[in-house]
């Protein structure tokens, strides 16, 4: 993992978990490490500063080892690699947080400054992906609603649960997307201006054509 912090002063700090790092930093703490987990705790940044939590998974077998029957090996029990506490690495103190301009993880921006506040890029992008449509892109919610309405017409005998399972969406997530799309409430206004509604229609039309071909293959 590469964590790059850009400061308002122009300073750039990179924290790298690979370069010049020990291959087995926890080898003396209870057995071979088969996986390492890095958690950048952006959710605690206001209270703790920027902290990278490290956990490791030990392949050692002891009295605390859990087992699970595994059908793929004839029902024999397979040992779990146990999650072990590693270290908390404080990358930035609470005082240094005030100087952040943005933070990137493996080239992806995860935090940026908007005036006096820090914005969680993951949450914002998720909301944008779900809800925002313009003349170029159609939101996932709008696409889901289009697919859902098409499937209801194509398979009128199917229950909502069956349709949801068909597209891999939990029914509760479908209902939430429908409610969020209804809350937009601006389709008519945008459509009158030649923007969003036309783009959504184009996107849904393309999806209907694709699903129609898919239905034909199934038959």
> How many H/I helical runs?
8
Q: Largest sheet, if any?
A: 5 strands, antiparallel
Beta fraction of the residues?
Answer: 25-35%
Termini gap? 47 Å
In N-to-C order, the SSE pattern is EEEHEEEEHEEEHHHHHH
Let me know the average pLDDT: 84
Description:
The structure is a single chain. The protein is an alpha+beta fold and 219 residues long. The protein is 39% helix and 28% strand. The chain contains eight helices and ten strands. It has helices at 45-48, 94-97, 121-131, 140-154, 160-167, 171-184, 187-192, 196-218; strands at residues 2-7, 12-16, 33-40, 50-58, 67-69, 77-79, 82-92, 100-105, 108-114, 117-120. Strands 2-1-8-9-10 form a five-stranded antiparallel sheet. Strands 3-4-7 form a three-stranded antiparallel sheet. The chain is flat. The two termini are 47 Å apart. The model is unreliable at 188-197 (pLDDT under 50).
């Amino acid at each position: 993992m590469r964590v790059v912090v850009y400061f308002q002063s122009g300073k750039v700090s990179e924290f790298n978990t690979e370069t010049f790092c020990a291959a087995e930093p926890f080898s003396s703490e209870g057995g071979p490490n088969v996986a390492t987990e890095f958690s950048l705790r952006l959710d605690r940044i206001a209270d703790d500063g920027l902290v990278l939590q490290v956990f490791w998974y030990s392949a050692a077998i002891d009295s605390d080892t859990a087992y699970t029957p595994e059908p793929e090996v004839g029902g024999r029990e397979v040992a779990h690699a146990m999650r072990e506490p590693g270290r908390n690495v404080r990358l930035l103190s609470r005082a240094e947080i005030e100087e952040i301009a943005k933070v990137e993880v493996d080239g992806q921006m995860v935090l940026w400054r908007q005036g006096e506040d820090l914005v969680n890029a993951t949450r914002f992008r998720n909301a944008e992906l779900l809800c925002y449509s313009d003349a170029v892109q159609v939101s996932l919610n709008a696409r889901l609603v289009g697919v859902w309405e098409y499937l209801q017409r194509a398979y009128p005998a199917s229950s909502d649960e069956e349709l949801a399972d068909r597209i891999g969406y939990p029914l509760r997530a479908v209902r939430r997307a429908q409610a969020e799309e209804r809350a937009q409430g601006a389709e008519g206004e945008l459509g009158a201006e030649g923007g969003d509604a036309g783009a959504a229609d184009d996107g849904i039309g393309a999806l209907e054509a694709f699903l129609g071909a898919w239905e034909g293959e199934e038959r």
